[in-house]
Amino acid sequence: MKNCIKQLRKERGWRQEDLARQLGVSRQTIVAMENNKYDPTLALAMKVARLFELPVERIFTLTWDD
User: Fold this and answer.
1) In Å, how far are 12, 44, 64 from 20, measured between CA atoms?
2) Once rounded to an integer, what is the mean pLDDT over residues 20-28?
3) Secondary structure of the chain in HEC code, one letter for each residue
4) Would strands 60-61 and 2-3 be described as parallel, antiparallel, or unpaired?
5) Do the beta carbons of residue 61 and residue 2 sit within 8 Å?
6) How far, in Å, CA of 43 to CA of 61, rounded?
7) Cα(13)–Cα(62) distance, rounded to whole angstroms?
8) What is the mean pLDDT of the chain?
9) How confident is the model at residue 66 (pLDDT cuts 50, 70, 90)?
10) Kindly report the CA angle at 36 between 40 and 64, in degrees rounded to 5?
11) Half-sphere exposure of 19 toward its Cβ, with a 13 Å CA cutoff?
12) Among 27, 23, 29, which residue's Cα sits nearest to residue 43?
């Protein structure tokens, strides 16, 4: 699964630590998500979407490899 979390985070001027704190996860989780190494749980994906005020589908997209 691909995502645009890094772009959205940078547009808001947030550090990885800032985003991690707001979502209640570690900075390492943010790093892994931004590098497409970790697919978040549905609950975490929905928290991300709510935080960025966007639909989940706008942030996360499935690839043919998934």
Assistant:
1) 14, 11, 28
2) 98
3) CEECHHHHHHHCCCCHHHHHHHHCCCHHHHHHHHCCCCCCCHHHHHHHHHHHCCCHHHHEECCCCC
4) antiparallel
5) yes
6) 16
7) 26
8) 96
9) low
10) 95
11) 28
12) 23
Residue with token string 């790093």: 31
Q: Which residue has the tokens 């989780």?
A: 29
The model's pTM is 0.91
Joined together, the tokens standing for residue 64 give 């043919």
Which tokens hold the place of 59? 């942030």
Tally the residues of the chain: 66
Q: What angle do CA 15, 26, 48 make, to 5 degrees?
A: 70
